[in-house]
């Protein structure tokens, strides 16, 4: 590797290892069931969690570097069993810089029922631009999960897809954005579940959803340097 | 600024930064979605959270000082995207010294359904004096949210309003009281949700609600210095 | 105070202050809404939480010593607003050495519905010996709450009562036992709620409940020195 | 004991004490209601939690060593009141190296209803190979619980059984695997509960369940040294 690449990979090893702590903090994962990856910008490479390793034991140096076919380039352990899905997304969606997968409980309950989360909350309009869609059932082990994610999210505002009977995949311009989408997906899924079991959620007008989404994507937060 | 004002602003920067930790502790916020502000007593100024900054990174020196039109007076970052709503409340309700906004899940579920929380708990009678009301749906970006809060809470016992399809705003004589109202609003919303999904809550007599509210507002806690 | 009494009160100040941490750990309390007390054995005295003080700020030296009419004997702050209820229990039930009050969410949901928690769990049979009963609605400020607790729990196996529209009071031979009952009451109330919203809980035979209760009260844990 | 046995028992005392922390971390236990044991490989011995001791106070040196009839071989305290059930499992199932018992809330709610958890999630197919079965109601104190566990799990893919009106027992090749099964059982029970209260879970094809189970048992994680 060149020096520049080394520095970039080191930065992403640190970021990916640290971001798994957010999955734990927001209670999105049990045991080892959830993973974060980051694309190495401008390279056919990604940094991803090792398979079956406890979140307590994740450190920059045990993250795995793979190419975008999921072949390990640097790392002593096997990469996440979801590596093929992450890799497929990076190959098919060049604008994506981070991917997250969880089985977070509320979102996965919607996935188990095969129901998209309807948009009845301003927070959902802000972050997801409307409903959070359901993707197909797909077996692990080939490209089926990746294909289902890409087919569902391509051209969709939502950075999150509920894979049927399985769990959540989220994408972002970088790994941190994908983790934020995973956190907000569970938060929205929870509130939507609580509203459904409470009474009858009031629908929002599409024009209001559009207005909120447009504003949040362009105005919220600190403008970049 | 005068020395007195400097000291007062410094005190409020510390208080507002610290109080955000209570939103995290009581699980009222995900990622960066919630904010606290305090009026600078006797001045046309408020101290508020910066926009889109992680709760881990809040410190007294990155809080933002704005005037009551929401214009930044002191601070390097953009203020919370909810600044206009906070500012509107301070302009319209001179007795209010603190404002809090969250999307806490149970309260927001009631807001999504457009249902006021009925008062079936002594804790709700104590703190809210009856039902917790619903405010109108309003888009962010102008004074509509602020107007909705003020229209709903003016002359109402409750320091909390459930803004439809959105979340909770609470007010208090200072920022700590507004945070307490946000914590108790979610606690009451949760218990009321659990009661609704369990069976049929038993109504309380209005005279009992009135008696509890009167006592709690006048007797509870330590008498002032 | 005599030296012996001083030592005993010091021990109970430490114990009562520390046990409030268990209410926080098990998520039984929001803000300042919950309290623990201990009888001073052989004396007409009790140690109780001060009113409206944050759990973070409780220390042995700010606990309040009251007589069994609720009059402060030692302490600079006002005692818990529930002091009269604790005191009434100690006066009426000489075998009780500790009292706990919370608004823990699941148990309070049962209280809001005025429903006793039916005994469908071996853990409930062990600790409560059958259903957890509902006590009357009562206003704070006199002896009505205390009377309701005593009337409901006298001669009942359960150390916990669900006061209607209010919350939970538990008793024990000492403060630690009362705290354990409060923790187990919420745990059982939660599982019973989850079972009710899931399907149809299977009833247990009364003879099995009796057998479990008898064994747990006489065999479980380490035998005393 | 021989030196080798001493070293092995010391290792298991440490492991069993530490693994109880996972029950606390994943919120599977309240107060002292849950326990982990490990078989001493190649010996008629097991290491188990003492009865009624707080999780904060568990240390390697207060774990109890029993023979497989539950008789204490080494330890100053009484062993867990569930020791007979653990011992029965070790006697009847020689491939089992670890046993865990909890009353974790969601799983116990299914147990209270006497309902097996249907397999509508890939995570459940991976870990449990299909539904999580219900075992019989059984009183504590003899071999009835152990017999119920063994009768239900023998020849079943699932390492977890929901004992009716009681709670969960899980088994594994070692104590860590049994703890993982307990964590995943509650996670799956929770998501299945949330799906049931939300809508209608979509069934999975048996062939897909079989495929997922086969892959997870043989491919997931790091291959052994």
UniProtKB/TrEMBL annotation, chains A, B, C, D:
Keywords: Metal-binding, Zinc. The keyword Metal-binding applies. GO terms for cellular component: cytosol. InterPro entries: Aldolase_class_II_sugar_metab, Aldolase_II/adducin_N, Aldolase_II/adducin_N_sf. It catalyses: L-ribulose 5-phosphate = D-xylulose 5-phosphate. SMART domains: Aldolase_II. Its EC number is 5.1.3.4. One of its GO terms (molecular function) is metal ion binding. Its cofactor is Zn(2+). Residues 14-193 form the Class II aldolase/adducin N-terminal domain. One of its GO terms (biological process) is pentose catabolic process. The keyword rRNA-binding does not apply. SUPFAM superfamilies: AraD/HMP-PK domain-like. It is an enzyme of class 5 (isomerase). Coiled coil: none annotated. It holds the Pfam family Aldolase_II. Belongs to the aldolase class II family. AraD/FucA subfamily. PANTHER family: FUCULOSE PHOSPHATE ALDOLASE, L-RIBULOSE-5-PHOSPHATE 4-EPIMERASE SGBE. This is L-ribulose-5-phosphate 4-epimerase. It comes from Micromonospora wenchangensis.
